[in-house]
Amino acid sequence: MIPVTEPFLPPKLELYALLDEVYDRNWLTNSGPLVNLLESEIPKFLNYNGHFSYVNNGTIALQIAIKALELQGEIITTPFSYVATTSSIAWQGCKAVFVDIEKESCNIDPKKIEAAITPQTSAILATHVYGNPCDVEAIAEIAKKHSLKVIYDAAHCFGTTYKGKSIFEYGDVSTTSFHATKLFHTVEGGALFTNNKDLAHKINYMRNFGHNGQEEFWGIGINGKNSEFHAAMGIANLKHISNILKKRKAQWLYYRDQLGSHLNVLELIDEAGFNFAYFPIFFATEEELLAKKKVLDENHIYCRRYFFPSLNTLNYAINTDLCEIAEQRAKTVLTLPLYDKLSSANQLLIVKNLLS
Ligand SMILES: *Cc1c(COP(=O)(O)O)cnc(C)c1O
């Protein structure tokens, strides 16, 4: 059986050493020493110079970002993402206005954003799909012209750089996920990145119920904290992440070498800065995809339709604007197995099955 992904687990003893410390201190959550250590180590590793807030998952990171920026009304967003991108907008009482994507990158098409702006628009929330950056310059220009905030759902982007800078530097806020299935994980977890000091301050209050000391409250908040156990997993994983990224690159390039001239594969925006997070392939039609997926499933090779369905088709989406490209991409994309323990023998088998 070849699953589409397998979480990386650090050597047990490395994790246990950190858990021993947690047992000795008996300090399990509420801004403990391991959470603080992780909060200083991750930005260092990423060469990120702004403010970084570790939270309990990538979805709460999105919700806190929307709340902290005080967004209301309409938020322009992409239909080609994980459901959390849209559900966070709806959950915060805003209306998701979908703008179609660029075919090649599967990222929101900046050329189509301005037509969707109305007096109610407060922000753009875009996803850097598969770890491949959006057209951040074009989006920044539109946002400036129309006084909109920009949030990037950068859940796929651990390690991605764009023009030599961490991708998390872009937008008013970037969010990410450290879920077990992501390239870097803390079992469950997520983070917010912002270069705005006041906003970071607000985010840090918001993720802790709004507490300002034990008996005083700064304002409304939620429980977005993460625990020492999760931070321990993150710290243990961080020691291996350089190797994980190197291996991922080799695996990704192998797929492209083998499949690139036969199948429709992802075009990279900035290959030097890519984190090689996912390897999607695109079929001409959904029928073709389903036929191939059936054969792969029968051979116990489990690929994932990621992302599917297009989010403008959700039953709670208010705005169901036609997003033809996103719908077409969602119906024809299959993401291949890619994870640290994937062996070259199994990769060869996957390639053989795809090309047969
Ligand atoms: C994984 C993911 C999320 C959600 O992150 P969680 O940590 O699972 O809450 C949001 N957006 C995208 C694009 C994702 O891939």
Summed up:
With 356 residues, the chain is an alpha/beta fold.
Give a written overview of the molecule.
The protein is of the alpha/beta class. It has helices at residues 12-25, 33-46, 58-68, 83-91, 136-145, 197-206, 228-238, 241-259, 286-298, 324-332, 344-355, and strands at residues 51-55, 74-77, 95-98, 121-127, 149-153, 161-162, 165-166, 173-177, 190-194, 264-265, 280-282, 333-335. The chain has two domains: 12-238, Aspartate Aminotransferase, domain 2 (3-Layer(aba) Sandwich); 241-355, Aspartate Aminotransferase, domain 1 (Alpha-Beta Complex). The strands form three sheets. A seven-stranded mixed beta sheet has the order 1-9-8-5-4-2-3, with helices on both faces. The protein has a three-stranded antiparallel beta sheet with strand order 10-11-12. A two-stranded antiparallel sheet has the order 6-7. The chain is globular, with a radius of gyration of 20 Å. It starts with 11 loop residues before the first helix and ends with a helix. The mean pLDDT is 96. The site of pyridoxal-5'-phosphate has 14 residues, from helix 3 and helix 4.
